[in-house]
Write a structure and sequence with these properties.
A 6-stranded mixed beta sheet has the order 1-2-5-6-8-11. The chain is built from 21 helices and 25 strands. Helices cover 33% and strands 15% of the residues. By secondary structure, it is an alpha/beta fold. β5, α6 and β6 form a beta-alpha-beta unit. It is globular, with a radius of gyration of 27 Å. Bound molecules: alpha-D-glucopyranose. Alpha-D-glucopyranose binds next to loops.
Length: 694
């Protein structure tokens, strides 16, 4: 190469280097400067997600190199100005990423913590914050910048498929528990995304369902939880929901996202959409939805086009870009955090177990619990041997293991009837190897195994007691059914009835354990067994946590944050909730595609919240009349007294014979919950003065 060319090359490289150096690089204190330096196309790219590129195999559109396989999505980078791409990952019960990676001998398992409904039933914001700290640490150490949780939509109806990851029928509980989770997670320097804002209370046709609702009811019941968490915890982000409210997509509702969320409540963070196909992108930007996830390249082009043709005000785009940059400069990625990919899963498993025992609810106990001797137990129910940690969909967690009651009892020194165990293991064996297909979505509940009455009878003599576990599964993209789901199946009822008849005839006791994600019918059978323990979706340590309670190692202190009605049709919203739609992911995709065919279809195309404020205890009350179990209900192995020392001060005393924790709840004159607090573990005779804050 002759000297002239070399000189030109050197000069141009020097010029390029000078230009590069002359360009500002993003810092925490120069966002205005960066905004001015960004081109229109760069601005448009920053408010559109980088696609599903993080999902191996469905790399539809990936504008960024995949950094954390299995994460839900990413934002986009602008290398020229030192703006990195961020990683966004689910979910409410733990970090959801792929547990293995191509050509990588390491594993990337995450702790499956208990699901939202169990965490709320702890009524213990300190415990929730502790789980959040552990969960947020796993996000940090696996390279995740924003964890897409908590999920706190109101449990308007028992059949909503995602109630397992929600907290309550009451907005105060939902808001306080969510705020505690956000504080815990964000204490690690990673973000959260409180979701789904707002009124996403069914999965059927969730992407287009139009919620028709009175504004005051919307504010008092469905927005209130988000208002509480914004004011108490300032999540880095909020996720707008798929649905419409009163005819407008929440993702493009300026009243909701700008006037209320920011204007009235003072939210300082970023709003991202739920994982939506391209809709009305310019309207979304204009309304104050700052980031379109998962992000399609067409959305970038639309934004550029509409700014150029005057259909989108660039000043509105700049507001969204600013919020994206404000998020970036807070993130571990921006600060170059060297994540280890080695969080302390052992320590987090212990936190998961502790939380699981704290949120389980003892519904019935005629004295059989805790088991006083370590005899032999006859264990019935598929979930006794293959327990369900949590729900399906984005709320699933790829956990390193799952405990079950079988091994939990053995680990605690109980004998198990191996004859019965072998029958279940045989029945489950061919199913278990099907589980590999559920890595990213979670496990189904297996159909219950039928057991003949004579076979039950034949085992009675060898056992001291029996445990029957009933399980349910539910999840994203589909709602539940009434038959064989809300109501027990005939087979399940027969199992409980037959086991109780045979063991009671021999003077032996039976405990039923509910490994479920949402409310089921209980009134018709709950007095047949001697005890009923609601274990919910307890996370990976669920089997051990159940046994911690059955054995008396832990005194149950969970209380219901939702009402268990006598019958499904007693619930006011049952008059306006879909029950004739096949649930599941593919039915959702189908409805997304043929929405027009369903125009005007009640509870599908639109859902009228005609029940107004009549949600849960606001309709049924808390006395327990006319319901199977009321809001706030939960038994203990001990007893407590409450003595009011003032309007907001209560002295709680353990008046029983074993240590335990108690929840104080305060309702106002309208009968609405205004405050709650949980005591520490009180020994027999010990008191604690509780100050209620409201
Ligand atoms: C899903 C869920 C949302 C989740 C997101 C990313 O559709 O609705 O909760 O965080 O997509 O997986």
């Amino acid at each position: 190469m002759d000297n002239r060319i070399k000189t030109i090359l050197a000069a141009s490289l020097l010029f390029a280097a000078m230009v590069a150096n002359a360009q500002p690089k993003l810092r925490e204190d120069n966002i205005d400067e960066i905004l001015k330096a960004l081109t229109l196309k760069e601005k448009a790219s920053l408010v559109v997600g980088a696609g599903l590129g993080s999902e191996p195999g469905i790399d539809l559109i990936n504008a960024e190199p995949v950094r954390v396989p299995g994460a839900a999505g990413m934002t986009r980078s602008v290398e020229r100005l030192g703006i990195p791409a961020l990683v966004l990952s689910d979910g409410p019960a733990g970090v959801r990423i792929s547990p293995t990676r191509k050509k990588d001998k390491n594993t990337y398992y995450c702790t499956a913590f208990p699901t939202g409904s169990l965490m709320a039933c702890t009524w213990n914001t300190e415990m929730v914050e502790k789980v959040g700290q552990a969960m947020g640490n796993e996000a940090l150490e696996y390279g995740v910048d924003v964890l897409l949780c908590p999920a706190l939509n109101i449990m308007r109806n028992p059949l909503c498929g995602r109630n397992f990851e929600y907290y309550s029928e009451d907005p105060l509980v939902a808001g306080k528990i969510a705020a505690a989770m956000i504080r815990g997670i964000q204490s690690n320097g990673v973000g959260t995304s409180a979701k789904h804002f707002a009124a996403n209370n069914q999965e059927t046709n969730r992407t287009n369902n139009n919620v028709i609702i009175d504004e005051q009811v919307l504010r008092d019941i469905y927005l209130k939880g988000f208002e509480i968490l914004v004011k108490e915890a300032q999540p880095w982000t909020i996720m707008s929901s798929y649905n419409k409210i009163n005819g407008k997509y929440t993702q493009a509702d300026e009243w909701l996202l700008t006037d209320v969320l920011r204007g009235e409540w003072g939210f300082e963070g970023l709003v991202m959409t739920d994982w939506t196909m391209t809709r009305n992108t310019a309207e979304q930007v204009s309304a104050g939805n700052d980031l379109m996830e998962w992000g399609m390249n067409g959305q970038v082009r639309e934004i550029v086009r509409k700014v150029k043709n005057g259909k989108l005000d660039e000043a509105k785009l700049d507001i969204c870009v600013r919020r994206v940059l404000e998020l970036v400069v807070k993130s571990p990625t921006f600060h170059g955090y060297q994540y280890s990919n080695k969080p302390d899963l052992k320590a987090h498993a212990q936190v998961s177990r502790e939380a699981a025992t704290e949120g389980m609810v003892l519904l019935e106990n005629n004295g059989v619990l805790p088991f006083t001797n370590k005899g032999q137990i006859a264990l019935y129910g598929v979930a006794s041997y293959d327990m369900i940690a949590g729900g399906t969909g984005s709320g699933n967690v790829n956990k390193p293991y799952m405990t079950n009651i079988h091994f939990g009892l053995e680990d605690a020194g109980f004998e198990i009837d191996e004859t019965i165990a072998e029958e279940y293991e045989e029945y489950l064996s061919h199913k278990k190897n099907r589980k590999k297909g559920y890595v990213m979505t979670g496990e189904p509940a297996w159909k219950e195994m039928a057991v003949k009455a004579e076979d039950i009878r034949a085992r009675v003599a060898d056992n001291d007691a029996a445990v029957v576990t009933i399980c349910r599964q539910a999840g994203e993209a589909g709602d539940r059914s009434i038959e064989d789901d809300f109501n027990l199946s005939a087979l399940e009822l027969a199992l409980i009835t037959d086991v109780c008849r045979e063991y009671h005839a021999a003077g032996k006791k039976v405990v039923v354990v509910l490994n479920i994600g949402g409310v089921i019918e209980t009134a018709s059978w709950k007095n047949i067994p001697d005890a009923v323990l609601l274990a919910w979706g307890p996370g990976q340590e669920g089997g051990n946590a159940v046994v911690d309670i059955l054995s008396g190692k832990v005194n149950p202190s969970g209380h219901l944050t939702m009402t268990f009605p006598l019958n499904y049709t007693d619930v006011p919203s049952s008059a306006n909730f879909p029950t004739d739609v096949k649930s599941g992911f593919f039915s959702m995709v189908k409805t997304m595609s043929n929405g027009n065919k369903n125009k005007g279809r009640k509870d599908f195309d639109y859902t009228e919240y005609a029940e107004g404020r009549n949600i849960g205890y606001r309709y049924f009350g808390i006395s327990g009349e006319n319901v199977s179990y009321p809001f706030g209900y939960g038994k203990s192995y001990t007893t407590f007294s409450e003595n009011a020392l003032g309007e907001k001060t209560v002295k709680v005393t353990n008046t029983g014979s074993v240590a335990g924790k108690h929840v104080v709840m305060k309702f106002d004159e309208k009968g609405e919950l205004v405050a709650f607090a949980k005591t520490r573990l009180l020994s027999p005779g010990e008191s604690q003065v509780v100050e209620l804050k409201y």
